[in-house]
Amino acid sequence: MHRRDLLYRLDLQNFTRELLSLYDELIPTEEEEVRRRKFFSKLESLFERELPGTRLFLFGSCVNAFGVCNSDIDVCLSVDEEEPNKIELVVQMATILESDAMLNVQALTHARVPIVKFTEPATGISCDICVNNTLAVVNSKLLHDYAQIDVRLRQLAFMVKHWAKRRQVNDTYRGTLSSYAYVLMCIHFLQQRRPPILPCLQEMRPTYEVKVGSIRCAYYDQVETLRDFGADNKETLGELLTAFFDYWACQHDYNHSVISVRTGGYLSKNEKEWTRRIGNERHLICIEDPFEVTHDLGRVVDKHSIKALRAEFSRAANVIAFDFNPWATLFEPY
Ligand code: CTP
Ligand code: MG
To answer: Which end of the chain is more exposed for a tag (fewer CB within 10 A), N or C?
Structure first.
């Protein structure tokens, strides 16, 4: 083996070790899990009392396996009505939470998904509650199920989410991507490795099926049978993170390609009719939602933020390729 390759291999081993120790630090502690569970049962009791007949469900990173320590809690209020007045319910929840002495209660009634945000004073836990967002509950289960197949998905997504937060490219209000979008990018990336590390659950015989409005959500969810799926691929976390940034920095075809976890491959912007700007939706980076297939998770990215985002992908790829201590520089705050 060439000496440079040997050095590079040794570096990668060390890089992986450093990344894995960061991964361990980011995993929520058992204590934190207990605190979250207590918080949620308290919230359930409050809502049983104040909004009888409704139910609360958890979704997002506190149940999808991609929650790092101190992440917020996403809750969905489920009401038994076809078309509830979500804005009114959000305002009503804000009043209830304020009378229960919650802090920083904000009703975001004009967001695409109206929510109420607040912080619990005793634990400092931040929480968002939306109304009847069943698709989010279902896509959280899909993400959770993918995470059970190969631990490298959770490890890779933790690194990518941590990097995105540190480098300030994880804020849909400022035109960059949601955590949900980053996790889908990781799943898609692992479906593409050769040999693949993840299968495409939606292309397999469905063992789970629900209908949300007109959308049929179906996929193979008996993931305990797939634990060896990625065993032929021996890539380490360091290699995968290197390849992930290299892909988004140099290889992705931003002009024509849509990444699709649903099909386990790529679609063209043409076939999705995502070739031009409609209103505020620009489709400069295209990530198809696995169930709401008309929904491009990249639509929030505009002509300024796409530059920032691609510059960050390139920076990450360069840091890993050339920096002496990539694990330190990579996650440096922006
Ligand atoms: N979600 C969605 N569509 C989006 C964004 C989010 O359906 N465009 C749903 C997904 O179910 C996702 C949840 O909202 O799991 C929370 O989204 P987000 O905050 O982006 O992800 P988290 O996994 O909660 O990440 P974080 O730890 O950063 O809060
Ligand atoms: Mg969240």
So the answer is: N
